[in-house]
Amino acid sequence: MMKTRSVEKVFAPPPPHYVGDGFRVHNFIPSLEELSMERMNPFIMMDYNSKFVFPPSKKPKGVGVHPHRGFETVTIAYKGKVAHHDSSGNSGVIGEGEVQWMTAASGILHKEYHEENFSKEGGEFQMVQLWVNLPARYKMSKPKYQGITRKDLVSVALENNAGFVEIIAGEFDGKKGPAESFTPIHMYNLHLEKDGVTKLSFNENYNTLLLVIEGSITINEAIKATSDQLVLMANDGENFSIEAKEKSIVLVLSGEALHEPIAAHGPFVMNNQREILQAFHDYNDGKFGNLED
Ligand code: MN
Fold first, then answer.
1. What is the mean pLDDT of residues 42-47?
2. Mean pLDDT, residues 206-210
3. Rounded to the nearest whole angstrom, what is the distance from the C-alpha of residue 111 to the centroid of ligand 1?
4. For the domain bounded by 7-256, which CATH number is listed?
5. Ligand 1 centroid to residue 47 C-alpha, Å
6. Is the pLDDT confidence value at 1 over 80?
7. For the chain, which residues make up each domain, given as ranges?
8. CB under 8 Å to 54, separation ≥6 — which residues?
C-alpha cells in the first residue's frame, strides 16, 4: 500500500536581495534554516525572482562573468527572457516556461543577463534558478549545456480537464521530459485550472518541494499555499494531492537524496575542503576557460 506523503512546512519567501543588478531573488535554499543543502540535496540552491517589473534599460541587467564547479545550474523563466553565455561556447535565450540546464561539472565561466529586447522594453520578470548537485563521481566530468525551449517540453493533459503537466525532467504518467540529469530527478510545471485536482507520487526518500508560481493551492485537502510560497514535503510517504483554488502554476521538484558530504564555497560545491581549494587554484590558473564580459 502506498502511503500519503504529508507537508513538512510551508515557507513564505524570505526578503529579496539582488544577484548582480538583474535578479531580485528570494533565496529559499540554503538560507532558510530548515532548507539546508544537506536536507534538500540534490537541490542545493534555490533563488526565486518573484514577479518584479524592471524598467527599460539600454544595457542588459544581470550577472557578469563568474565560475561554477561541481553542480548544474537550472534556470526556468516564467516572465521575461534570460540570455546565457559560457566559456564552453554555449549560449541561449529562454522565454516563458523555458529552461536553461547548464552542467558546470569540472568548471565553466558564464554570464547571465536579461535578453536584449526584453531589456530595452522592460516589463514583468519572474524566474527560478536552481543548483542541482552532482554526485562525487560526476563533479569533474565535462561541462555541457541543454537549452530547453517550448517545442522540447513534454506536455501531459490531466484527467477531468484539471489542467496539464509540462515535464522538464524525469517522468510523469509514463511520459519522459527532455532534460538529462545525472541522478534521478523529476521536474515539472504543473498548470491547474480553478478547482482542478491532481495526484503526484514520488519515492519516499526523494526530497520533494513545490513552489507556487501563480495562484493558490491546497495539498492533501488540508494545507494551503499561495503564490511565492514554498512547500516542503515530508519524506514519510509517496502520494499527495494538489488542488487549485484558482488557476495556478506550481513548480514541482523531486530528487533522489545524495548522501555525500558537501563542502560549499561561493560558486563551488564539492565534497571536501581540499577540492574547494583546488577549485580556487584552478580558477586562478585560468583552467575554467575564457569568456568576455
Ligand atoms: Mn551562475
1. 98
2. 98
3. 7
4. 2.60.120.10
5. 11
6. no
7. 7-256
8. 22, 61, 80, 114, 119, 122, 123, 125
